[in-house]
Design goal:
mainly alpha; rod-shaped; 71% helix; 143 residues
């Protein structure tokens, strides 16, 4: 994972896109609420510039708060996703080990069976020895 950080944001560079998406969504929602509040609390005769100045004054501290909250949200998302991925990796590794073990047993068994068959065909095993092949659990089959 790339851990380089931008000094001003303290957000890992590979999480910068997530940060800006969250920041912009929150900013648009807050801006809409502030505009709605300013427009609804003013008289119709008020000047548009007055509303714009009031929205700008209200939005400045909100934007700083949103930036800080978004950093916390991104860090929380990073921790949760890292924890989830570690758990999934551990589970996948255990499943892979078990599957590999089973595959290895099947391959080894088929190699021994092929080797034994080849010995019998070549006449290298005495014909009077009848040893039943083991079953899938590696035990001798009962005749």
């Amino acid at each position: 994972m790339n851990e380089e950080r931008e000094p001003i944001w303290t957000v890992p560079t590979d999480w910068r896109e997530t940060y800006f998406i969250l920041f912009n969504v929150q900013t648009i929602i807050c801006l809409g609420l502030i505009i709605w509040n300013e427009v609804s609390s003013r008289r119709a005769s008020d000047n548009f510039v007055d509303v714009l100045v009031a929205v700008s004054q209200s939005m400045a501290p909100v934007a700083i708060t949103i930036a800080a909250v978004t950093i916390v949200m991104v860090e929380a998302l990073r921790m949760l996703s890292e924890r989830y991925l570690k758990r999934r990796f551990r589970q996948g590794r255990e499943e892979g080990k078990e599957e590999g073990r089973e595959e290895g047993q099947v391959q080894e068994r088929s190699r021994w069976e092929e080797w034994t068959r080849q010995l019998m065909e070549d006449g290298l095993l005495p014909p009077d020895i009848e040893v039943p092949p083991p079953d899938s659990n590696g035990k001798k089959k009962d005749s």
